[in-house]
Design goal:
about 170 residues; two-stranded antiparallel sheet; 6 strands; about 15% strand
Length: about 170
């Protein structure tokens, strides 16, 4: 059996997709790093907006100095919001708002079908998990690093795609 083949439950060989199996551009082509980065930036802005609103509302001026009293629940809430946002949109629409705007869609790696709830959950949990660790400001850096892993590789599959068994394709 060649390296690019796996066995399905019946025992017949099944070819695992490679970059050669996708058109160079247009619908069903692999999502390029630029649109993926843009979509993720839009998604992070959607998630950051409520966090920044809470920080702005809880800020105080003491002796002419602006003081930020960030509530202890804000980081866990941001973590939950990021996971729920990614999971719900990917489960229901196969794309987040950023991916919708830039013409991208999440599909199963093995056959291009709709990702299962488990795949969407794993895909959503991995990048946000560093925020659950006591990493301080490095937690945010780790989240961005994990999202950035989709830039390289033949199929542009980042760690969330690998863990979730998914792939991001272009719809236009």
């Amino acid at each position: 059996m060649q390296q690019s083949e796996k066995t399905n439950p019946i025992g017949a060989p099944r070819k695992v997709p490679t970059a050669k199996d996708f058109p160079a551009s247009g619908p069903y082509s692999l999502a390029a790093p630029g649109p993926r980065f843009g979509a993720r930036a839009l998604d992070l802005a959607v998630i950051a907006l409520p966090v920044l609103i809470v920080i702005a509302v809880t800020a105080k001026t003491i002796d002419g100095q602006l003081q930020f009293d960030v509530p202890g629940w804000l980081l866990p809430a941001a973590l939950a919001l990021g996971v729920v946002y990614d999971f719900v949109f990917t489960s229901l629409a196969q794309r987040t708002l950023g991916k919708m705007l830039l013409g991208l869609r999440v599909v199963r790696y093995v056959d291009g079908g709709r990702p299962t709830a488990t795949q969407c959950g794993l895909r959503a949990l991995l990048p946000w998990s560093p925020l659950a660790l006591p990493l301080g400001p490095f937690g945010c850096a780790a989240v961005l690093m994990i999202f950035g892993t989709g830039i390289g590789g033949e199929l542009h599959r980042g760690w969330p795609d690998v863990v979730g068994g998914t792939l991001v394709i272009s719809t236009r």
